[in-house]
Amino acid sequence: MSETLLAALVTGAVTLGVCLLNNHFQQSKTRALLEYKLDELTERVNKHNNLIDRTYHLEEDMAVAKEKIKVANHRIDDLERSTE
């Protein structure tokens, strides 16, 4: 009976050890994959934020250009009225 119990304990210990090692290596692979995906996502977010900033500046420049065109048109209208 003690040989059977000893064999069962050794088998259980070896199985537990293999499971712990397997979990450790799987966890490190999963962690590496998550870090890679997080880095990629961070890069995409930075590109998106850069695009938003550039769009904001373009909209600002467009508003200034529209205002300049409006002022130029008023000047032209004033010049045309003064020559009539």
Written overview of the protein:
The structure is a single chain. With 84 residues, the protein is mostly helical. The protein is built from 1 helix and no strands. It has one helix at residues 2-83. The longest helix is centred in the middle third of the chain and has 82 residues, at 2-83. The radius of gyration is 36 Å and the shape is rod-shaped.
Number of strands: 0
- Distance between the ends: 122 Å
Number of H- or I-type helical stretches: 1
Largest sheet: none
Beta-strand percentage? under 5%
- Name the average pLDDT: 91
Low-pLDDT runs: none
Cα Rg: 36 Å
Class per helix and strand makeup:
mainly alpha
The backbone outline, from C-alpha atoms, is: rod-shaped
Relative helix content: over 70%
Following the backbone from N to C, one meets helices and strands in this order, namely H
Concise overview:
With 84 residues, the protein is mainly α.
